[in-house]
């Protein structure tokens, strides 16, 4: 059962993740879904990535290779993404929607996801180049408003973070986003490339221990969704 402190509504909540390709979106969602399964939070995944004809998104492929603890569904065509996500979301639960590399073209799945979620998580590696690219996403929110759509509440998740505590880029990125009026999640996802790291975990059963970055992310997202 969902912990009482979360106060998720009967219809549940839908959280989408966006960002450039390789920013750790699918990795984060696979681990968070596995974490929710381990603590009894009702959850499902929806993969809205469109990698190519007859190809599957990373999250769906991951779930087919190993049991991550909850079902993951392939998203339908853009016009039905919201309807299907609402239908599949467990009562008082969470639907995590994965997306492909950011694409601002009108009518694509990114806009369909943004129009049908309660919370948007922007996965952002903390580098000047990625901060520059973030502008394209923020312009998309303005474009939604111009069409009479309400952009979802958005939080930033810093991913691929250098574990070296002396690295200034993470603090600078957090400070810049905060000063611009954005909410940055406390949790960060570290960049490690060795065996057993998040970078090497695709296709393996996600192992999420209490207090780990992915467990903290899962807890923080539940708090955000319950607002």
User: Mind summarizing the main beta sheet?
Assistant: 7 strands, parallel
Global morphology: globular
Order of helices and strands: EHEHEHEHEHEHEH
Number of strands: 7
Mean pLDDT: 89
Put simply, the count of helices is 7
* Fraction in helix: 25-40%
Strand content bin: 15-25%
Class per helix and strand makeup: alpha/beta
Read across the widest sheet, the strand sequence of neighbours is: 3-2-4-1-5-6-7
CA(first)-CA(last) distance? 19 Å
Radius of gyration: 16 Å
Unreliable spans are 1-5
Q: Can I get a quick summary?
A:
With 227 residues, the chain is α/β, with parallel strands linked by helices. The protein is 35% helix and 19% strand. A 7-stranded parallel β-sheet has the order 3-2-4-1-5-6-7, with helices on both faces.
Core attributes:
disordered N terminus; 7 helices; 227 residues; alpha/beta; 7-stranded parallel beta sheet
Describe the protein.
With 227 residues, this protein is of the alpha/beta class. It contains 7 helices and 7 strands. It has helices at 25-39, 58-65, 81-88, 109-114, 128-146, 169-179, 213-225, and strands spanning 13-18, 43-47, 72-74, 94-98, 119-124, 153-161, 183-190. Strands 3-2-4-1-5-6-7 form a 7-stranded parallel beta sheet, with helices on both faces. Helix 1 (25-39) crosses helix 2 and helix 1 crosses helix 7. The chain is globular and about 45 Å long.
